[in-house]
Sequence to fold (258 residues):
Amino acid sequence: MQLELENRLFLVCGATAGFGGAIAHALLNEGAKVIAVARNRQKLEELRLLFPDRVETISGDLSRHETPDSIVNLLSNRALDGMLVNAGGPPAKSFIETEMQDWDAAYASVLRWKIALVKALLPKFRKQRYGRMVFVESISVKQPVENLVLSNSMRLAVVGFVKTLSQEIAAEGITCNILAPGYHDTNAVKRVIQKKSDVSGLDYTTVQKQLQNTIPAGRLGDPAEFASLALWLLSPLSGYITGQTISVDGGVMLGSFG
Ligand SMILES: NC(=O)c1ccc[n+]([C@@H]2O[C@H](COP(=O)([O-])OP(=O)(O)OC[C@H]3O[C@@H](n4cnc5c(N)ncnc54)[C@H](OP(=O)(O)O)[C@@H]3O)[C@@H](O)[C@H]2O)c1
Fold:
């Protein structure tokens, strides 16, 4: 299948590790151009050096007000084909552990910046009458995950926002979809396993094995597998799919419509 991504320009948020890293590499391997965003300058530079002609970088915290402005300024009047809206998740906490400041921080790190970024770039997509937006959230939007109350709660607001947005812009050739990953082999899942290990007193490997046993596929997902679906959603081929929240979870979701 030809994904028709060559020479197209994509914004990839959280492009230096995990899902964002895998998706940035996959896009670049298809001949696309990438504006990569993350906080760590050195990791961004490592990515740029791999594809110096096709990677531009923005080092910034996506939850800070100035980052969307930097993206808009770098893009200037160039066409943008799509964007991956992705960064780190909120800290792993039970409800009882949270303070009000955790909820304020989760609003900023999970929801607010995504709205700000869409507000900043939607005018460009609307002018082009074309655009692809893919958000990376979590299976926690379909099935709450123990000790992740901030993710379980705040990401549902992203689902409501993206679904509503999808209906407002569907006639303009712009799609927005959410990928809801289950457990994949990235730093974020390592932090979840570590947290469970700390809480339970079990060692890291035991907790990892217990986790794998809860996954019908019997293993953690590979970010490259995840990237293959993201690429299709970012491509022109996906034009009739919008407003969807798609699980990528090795069968973890048990509901019939999971
Ligand atoms: N991995 C899983 O199994 C899993 C499952 C369910 C949900 N998720 C969710 O999927 C998303 C991505 O997870 P991942 O596993 O790919 O995470 P990851 O491996 O920790 O990578 C996160 C990427 O985002 C960047 N980033 C983080 N916070 C940022 C910020 N405030 N501003 C700019 N860049 C930022 C990081 O670079 P810098 O640190 O340099 O900024 C890095 O490039 C997260 O929301 C996570 O909770 C993951």
The chain has a mean pLDDT of 97. The longest helix spans residues 100-128. Residues 14-20, 37-40, 43, 61-63, 86-89, 136, 138, 181, 183-184, 186-189 surround NAP (CB under 6 Å).
